[in-house]
Amino acid sequence: MRAILSGLHHKKNLQELELELIDVPEPFDDLAVTFLEKQTKASLTVPISKVVSSEVVRLRINAADLQFAAEGQSEFSWELYLNIQQQTTRGLIQVESEYLSDRHQFTLTSYYQLNSDANGMALFNMHTQQAEDEFSINAINLQDDQLQIIGPSHINNQPITNQRLVLKNVTEDSSAEWPITKMSLHGLFTAAIPLSDLAANTTQQLFIRSTVADEELEQRVVLSKSLAGQVTQAVTGNHRLILIEKRFDNGIRVQEMAAPTLPQRLAGVPAKLGSASKLVSLLMDKINLVYMRRLFKRGHRPFEQPTLIFESFGGRQVSDSPYAIYQLFTQLYPGFTFIWSIDRSQKRFCKENGIPFVVRRTAKWVRTLEKASFWISNARFPAWVRKPNYVTYIQTWHGTPLKKLGLDIENVSMPGTTTVKYHANFVKEANRWDALVSPNDYSTRIFRSAFGFNNQILKVGYPRNDELLNSTPDDIVTLKQQLGIPLDKKVVLYAPTYRDNQFAEKGKYTFELPFSLDEFREKFGQDAVLVLRMHYLISNALDISGYEGVVFDFSNHPNISDLYLISDMLITDYSSVFFDFAYLKRPILFYPYDYHMYKDELRGFYLDYEKDLPGEIAHNEQQLLEQIGEKLQTPDMSDNQKFMDFYRRFCAIDDGLSSLKIVNYVVQQIEKNG
Question: Which family does the entry's similarity section mention (predicted)?
């Protein structure tokens, strides 16, 4: 029997913890969770308040109850135990952790955070007696000719208003103030001070001014964690050096001074040149293919600097959840090393966007993979790629399962494999994943069974969907302008899946549109446009010549979330794209023109396709065109009971901070491992 902490939700003034139960016998009516404080051995038992399913339960607790008067104690670390009091089964099961939260400010003087101990067991840490004049930030960096600060804009879910960033001169009685603007992620702000605004030859301390509960505050900026991964030095265009310093009391100081002279800088060059020469020589020795394969079998020492490898769809794209995590990671911790594993086709994109990369199946790629600290991917690496034991492999996956996958597929008809081989490869690969990202309880259960997966699940939602929850109407207008979509027309997105029985050769599939573009143009061309998004496995390009201005093919656009955002409705069939599009609460129409063949002869489904979908089904082209017109008249599905039931089941846990939670998980692993 196992109990795993899999989520944290804030419900008014209470904290709702979610537990995944594995092999725990029902009924769950008498279940409770006992909190045991490690130092004082104080205990608190809280009954389970809600049974979500046969595998998931929830309890609510007030974080204020996890602090009490204890002489000299300001930090409380609570272990969690599932308390079973059934007639036939009694005892305590220590709760494991698959959810690691960011610091959550509870009051001006206290905060809490969910962590795990060295054995992966859950800890609810409560910190009290924090100084009222301290304000803890998330990150501070010098880049793009700015001093950039990111920090919280809420206390216990209540917004902090009128926030301003202040620099005070350490030696003089003077200060300067800059406004703080909201960031794209909910609950965080970003502030930027142009480096040119910094006074010359000064040392200045950072403060935050704000309004909390109608009280005007001035608080010293502190950073409780190390500056590792953040950029703390910069030289300006006029040859001035800027340094960020973290003091013994966690306060932040900013120094402005003349940059080192040329002779001073040249003093360190010989050692650097010698090191670079050795590296080039080493890489040249490993360029041949034979040595590349041998390299995977040899032992390697990891890079001294934490190094993260990102890959999306086997290197074919720079996209999806790995890209969302990468973008936030480089913003918060640009001092770490980030490298993308790509096909050669993505070299131009990476160069144009300043993305560091290594080309797959080269000697450098092998060496980089083997010496990295983390792999973050949304698909499987080749089976012959060896994973060192010091690598943490985070699998983000790439969708909520509608069609059966992995071990749940009884008969695999994909080219180049057999059912037995397909199953074996799935299990072998899944056992290499140290953590698997899940968007909801439904997916968690399927991942456990379909992948034979028993390692850590991070049920935080898909990072790629943060963009959907944080984008503004102005962002959508900008996207439409960039893509050339008319601003005065509605947008219909058609995003079907590929069919396993429509392959042309290994790795390539064919597809033909199952409806008439002429009919669409005649019926909707004055008021709407059609955006096509074919699956990346589709090999044949669709011919849309003659439909310019009405039909747009964005099958190769790297970020499908952009297409979700510009679209007023979605048409799909069996693709899992509708799980993501549902976050926008816009209408979805299903067009499974070959439903019975697909259901009975191909993979089958986890959901009841005719009952559980968040939209109507069109079975032929006439129904499709009729329902497109109806859907375009109902742009918001918030009042649709069936749709909102689906939303609460599959989308509700995602708060737009999934990327941040994965970043926090990685950083905590780095700090835990020293």
Answer: Belongs to the CDP-glycerol glycerophosphotransferase family.
Kindly report the length of the chain: 674
Residue 35, pLDDT score: 96
Model confidence at 525, pLDDT cuts 50, 70, 90, reads very high
Answer for the pair 655, 628: CB distance below 8 angstroms, yes or no. no
Alpha-carbon radius of gyration of the chain? 27
Give the pLDDT confidence score for residue 461 in this predicted structure.
94
* pLDDT score of 456 more than 70: yes
Helix, strand or coil, per DSSP, at residue 310 = strand
Residue with tokens 């920090």: 151
- 3-class secondary structure, 433: coil
SS3 label, residue 83: strand
Quick one: DSSP state of residue 638? T
Q: What is the pLDDT of residues 176-234, one digit of tens each?
A: 999 887 776 778 898 899 999 999 999 999 999 998 888 899 999 988 777 878 898 99
Would you call the peptide bond into 27 cis, given omega within 30 degrees of 0 as the criterion? yes
Q: For residue range 325-363, what is the model confidence (pLDDT) as tens digits?
A: 999 999 999 999 999 999 999 999 999 999 999 999 888
Q: Which pTM value belongs to this model?
A: 0.74
**pLDDT over 80 (residue 412):** no
Which of 206, 129, 111 lies closest to 168 in space, CA to CA? 206
Provide the CB-side half-sphere exposure for 416 (13 A, CA).
8
- H helix intervals, 245-362: 262-266, 269-285, 289-297, 320-332, 347-352
Q: Cα–Cα distance between 25 and 46 in angstroms, integer? A: 19
Contacts for 641 with CB less than 8 Å, ≥ 6 apart: none
Is residue 281 predicted with pLDDT exceeding 60? no
* Helices and strands of the chain, counted as H and E runs: 17, 40
Q: Which of 35, 208, 39, 66 is nearest to 128 (CA)?
A: 66
Structure tokens that stand for 395 in this block = 């699998």
Place of tokens 């096909």: 343
Identify the H or E element spanning 273: helix 269-285
CA distance 145 to 194: 6
Rounded Cα distance between 524 and 182, Å, is 39
Q: Is 353 left (phi over 0), alpha (psi -120 to 50) or beta?
A: alpha
Residue 488: CB atoms within 10 Å: 5
d(CA 27, CA 264): 73
Pairing of strands 134-136, 215-222: parallel
Tell me the pLDDT band of 511, cut-offs 50, 70 and 90.
Answer: low
Quick one: DSSP state of residue 173?
S
Does residue 555 contact residue 534 with C-beta atoms inside 8 Å?
yes
**SS3 call for 80:** strand
Contact of 415 with 349, CB cutoff 8 Å: no
The first and second tokens of residue 411, run together, are: 């008969």
